[in-house]
Amino acid sequence: MSTKIRQSAVASRRVFVVEVMGHDCGYLALMSGLATGAERNLLPEEDTALNDLVFDVHNLSEGFRSGKRLGW
């Protein structure tokens, strides 16, 4: 299943954001991200500021404009 999500994202030239259950348990999100080959994990134990997200989106956009098919 996880490779299907990644293949769909690459084929459609899109970024997929996947939310997993776990409430405040970042371990579940981290393990899910590792198992699926996620390129970025946001965990509740780590403070994520809006500027961090803006920076990530900018880097993804620049990468796609320069021909990358995967994010990082």
Question: How would you concisely characterize the structure shown here?
Answer:
The protein is an all-alpha fold and 72 residues long.
Identify the quaternary structure here: single chain
Please write the string of helix (H) and strand (E) elements.
HHH
State mean pLDDT (0 to 100 scale).
83
Number of strands: 0
Could you estimate the helical fraction of the residues in percent?
40-55%
Q: Please, how many helices? A: 3
Shape: flat
Instruction: Pick out the low-confidence regions.
Output: none
SS-derived structural category = mainly alpha
Secondary-structure blueprint of this entry?
Layout: H1 2-12, H2 26-36, H3 50-65
3D architecture notes:
The protein has 72 residues and is mostly helical. The protein contains three helices and no strands. The longest helix is centred in the last third of the chain and has 16 residues, at 50-65. The two termini are 22 Å apart. The model has no long low-confidence stretch (mean pLDDT 83).
